[in-house]
Model the fold of this input.
Amino acid sequence: MSSNEKMSMADLMENLREELTCFICLDYFSSPVTTECGHSFCLMCLLKSWEEHNTPLSCPECWRTLAAPHFQANERLGRLASIGRQLRTQVLQNEDEQSSCGRMLGASKVFSDDEQSVVNFSTQSHGLNRAYFSSEAEKQHKEKLQDIIPLLWKKKKEAQVILNHEKERVILCKEETKTCKQVVKSEYMKMHQFLKEEEQLQLQLLEKEEKENMKKLRENEIHLTQQVRHLSKMIGWIESTCQNSTLESFEEVQGAMDRCESLLLQCPETTITQLSLCRVTGMREMLRKFSTDVTLDPSTANAYLVLSDDLKSVRYGGTRQQLPDNPERFDQSATVLGAQLFTCGRHYWEVEVGKKTEWEVGICKDSVNRKGNLPKPPGDLFSLIGLKIGDDYSLWVSSPLKGQHVREPVHKVGVFLDYESGHIAFYNVTDESLIYSFPSASFHEALRPIFSPCLPNEGTNTDPLIICHV
Done:
């Protein structure tokens, strides 16, 4: 294969990689989804981007404002990305087998055999041998250094973006801690005075974790600032060197290439921060006083859902059943409502989600739209969504969409409603901890429980959702 053909193959491979790369993580697509503006991203990258920027929701690539967090799974693009990754790996392996030196030698080699004829050596002070280039060799090496500048600029841009993001997260960290403190106070207000000491212990723990998180963020900010400074210095040196009429010695050029390689290998990373679970002593015993017997309403169930005889569990059946398309029935969303309508009082029930990789439980207005699969307007749905992709497990709440990563999967969810005070909250029954508490709202119509076992996801999400006896 000629050098022109090799260059053509490299260009094709690079073009293919760019088409199959997520704009956010700059890696091959993983579980890609496509927004309403036509741009595609990894599912987790898009959700994290929306979580971090909160409102208004917008496309991370074109910045178009989106009316709602609506996207479609793009399985074909995911398969193409997987094929592209494998193809790139195979091509690189073949090139390594054909060249014993590999691409690293080609990248680090400064002089070719042809160039040796245009390089003159002379003895300088301190006994060092310096190489001075002819005009042709000088031109070629300037081109090599010029090729590195875009890579350095790209790396600097990546580091600067993360640095700016880390500075924003310093404020966000304080806000999250403040919000968590308010939640702790709100939960303990439901209990008797003797719990005040435990409340204070919880607040002290959060303050300690805030200091630890702030320390991590500050340290990483310093590290990223240094990385940006080194990249700027190297860019300036190369640009200045390339503008001079005569290049420096071979040793200095080689040293600059080595330092560039070292800088390009450094990967800027974001800081991982954590807050403790909001455990409340006696939580479940208190909530059980408001236990409500919840059952499923068959007239609302999607035709693909299979309900148990006692109307306490639901699973995705895989085959469409011959059921009437009544107005109450969900026609596209794998969803079913509870039979109970709530217009007053306090109510609590628990749902076993087991080892499912995707599920949704919560509360919605009785008037919620049952047709189509468009996102529900804010205030129509208050739900908790569990999502597991690989080893990454996260929980999301709707209206507005907001997520948080959790260390361990949730196996049983408690749902609490106080109609008069406009309070809705979700609990991890196993840990007896609060998952999320919605801001107080004002309800003016009947509310109902809502459940979705979601799609089977290639056989990994076939378990049912089960309403437990509390």
Remarks:
- Confidence is low (pLDDT under 50) at residues 100-133.
- The longest strand covers residues 381-389.
